[in-house]
Amino acid sequence: MDPFATAHPGAAFDAYEPGARERAALRTPWRPEDGPLPALYVSHGAPPLFDDAEWMTRLGEWADRLPTPKAILIVSAHWESAPLTLSSAEAGTPLVYDFGGFAERFYRMTYATPDATALAERVAATLPDGQPAHTSRRGLDHGAWVPLKVMYPLGDVPVLQMSLPTEDPDRLLAIGARLRELRSEGVLVIGSGFMTHGLPFLTREMLAGQDTPGWTGDFDTWAAEALDRGDLETLHRFRDAPGMPYAHPTAEHFVPLFVTLGAATDPEGPVTTTIDGNMWGLSRRSLQVA
Known about the structure:
Helix content is 32%, strand content 16%. The chain is an alpha/beta fold. It has one domain: LigB-like (Protocatechuate 4,5-dioxygenase, Chain B), CATH 3.40.830.10. A six-stranded mixed sheet has the order 5-2-6-1-10-7, sandwiched between helices. A two-stranded parallel sheet has the order 3-4. A two-stranded antiparallel ribbon has the order 8-9. α5 (169-183) crosses α9 (256-262). The longest helix has 16 residues, at 214-229. The chain is globular and about 50 Å long.
């Protein structure tokens, strides 16, 4: 069974989108009296998200519970670049189709968002002196536009992507801390990764949803317990966690979590899991922090 082969690729999204757009139009815009928006960590999925009705519903309901942000700043596992760099802030920023083996339809999807120049200027102003944010013409990669197309289907919120300049947890926590003040201005800060991402170790049965690897459950349980305790010291040692190195043969899908935690009012404070469960044997645990 080819897990990429569906009779009508994206049919679940076609069924989901009309109602999602109606609900999005009824959301309340963020106001200063609402207080800071939470910071999110989203297990983002790839084009298969558009074939997963239950997952899309849960992402959409998550966004429904939040005021509509004034802007979104997202750090994705799929843009590792130092020094820290910002995507194009122009309206209608093009998408990056950084995936392979999927139906042609997913390479024709669009997600045109408003101008994000004001957000780019604010992000640059939060950074330490001597560490400027570099700018680029880069568009939004699938770690950004795939989940946002589900959560904010109207495409009416300015979106800016920031590169992942390091895999060092302390440096990423510090970057998140710099972004913390933006939450009080109606900016939704998102770290986009995947709670487990051992793609090289998935079997055909796992891809077909018939089996879940032990390393996914081991790592997911370890991470959930450490997050519940606010145990940053343990999370720093993720390379030694149960289920490793299979859960994360490379670190880029886990470490955006540290940007999210750094942007929290208290990085060791309460964490709310909003989505759990698995997809293709991978943990899609997603969460928010206040």
